[in-house]
Design brief:
By secondary structure, the chain is mainly beta. The protein is built from 1 helix and 4 strands, in the order βαβββ. A 4-stranded antiparallel sheet has the order 1-3-2-4, covered by helices on one side. Strand 2 and strand 3 form a beta hairpin. It starts with a strand and ends in an 8-residue tail after the last strand. The mean pLDDT is 91.
């Protein structure tokens, strides 16, 4: 887990999780990385309403709620 109480954003969490398959943000400033997901029941998006500590326009989860994302394979075509 990574924490940044003043500067966490969705992009920062994604960068911190390079090499993983999934990343997620919880409680405004916590970033989690992993190669698999746990089998929890999906909660409504409205449960993830806390603004990110580094960009209040973005949502970074909630109390015991993670806004989750999948890292896609990114590459350049020349």
């Amino acid at each position: 887990m990574h924490r940044d109480k003043r500067g966490m954003t969705i992009a920062k969490c994604k960068a911190l999780c390079h090499g993983n398959t999934y990343y997620g943000l919880e409680n405004k400033h916590e970033c989690f990385c992993g190669k698999s997901l746990r089998k929890y029941k999906k909660q409504p998006e409205s449960a993830c309403k806390m603004p990110c500590s580094g960009n209040r326009a973005e949502k970074c989860g909630g109390h015991w709620r993670i806004s989750g994302y999948k890292i896609m394979n990114e590459f350049n075509i020349f």
